[in-house]
Amino acid sequence: MQQVFDRYLNYLTAERNASRYTVRNYATDLLGGTTEKGQKGFFQFLRLKNVDTLDQVDRQVIRDYLGWLMEQGIVRNSISRKYSSVRSFFKYLVREELITTNPAETGVSPRRDQRLPSVLSVEEVVRLLEAPDLSKAEGLRDRALLELLYASGLRVSEVVKLDRGQVDFDTNEIRVLRGKGTKDRMVLIGEPAAQALTAYLARGRPELPGEKSGDALVVTRQGERLIERRVQKILEKCTRAAGIGKRVHPHILRHTFATHMLDGGADLRVVQELLGHADLSSTQIYTQVSKSQARKVYLSAHPLAKAQKEDEQVEQQIN
To answer: What is the pTM of this model?
Structure first.
């Protein structure tokens, strides 16, 4: 099993161009681990059931595995993710003709608890973007980085891989490289983001050593390509400076980009393309966020809606 598993991880990296975090999550779901209480992997379950070869796994084994996870109190979202990892692994085995059918293909995945992604308000975004000190090279870089994340909806893993040559300032387009065998995609940025990037490249980037980073777009003060963990630190610093009382991570800016696009009337298919989602269902969650935001604004702004809400609260207190 181990040799097949190792080949599967190589396939995820080389052919599917999966990020190292995706590969790590798949590995944890299948192999299991001891860092999280009760977070058992699929292979651990097979050993408990004395299943020695993968061709012994049938639909009933998959169902027993899901039941085993439920008995250990694993939340439904985690079970659903683990099921997806198992299904993907067996799909690979069928592709490689190591087995004939995918036993997880016709199984029933546990319904996820629908949790709407957290987003920032427009006012919070403005405060965040204005937080960096533009008198310093690092401040120019941080402003450009934040503008880029919000304006493009790019994943942080995509942003840190960008080179200067991938940005076309004539058209305000960025070419995102997707890897071998996968078509690159184009994303757009607005004029404020383009101006922030131009200012950073003209005045900030030259002050940051570049020998170690080559053509990297965003770099550290040592001149090395920025890594994802460092982006999170920058975001935490700017969040504190902006006085935003919530934890903000790079993916929140991606969520915020999509939600604000839909709030502004963008077509769902366009947002899907800009985000790089293969499946429209991944983008549709943002329509729910948009509706949720609209409801909050309506209840807080409409005088009769507010009065009705207050009446309901009084009635609840009486009862």
So the answer is: 0.60
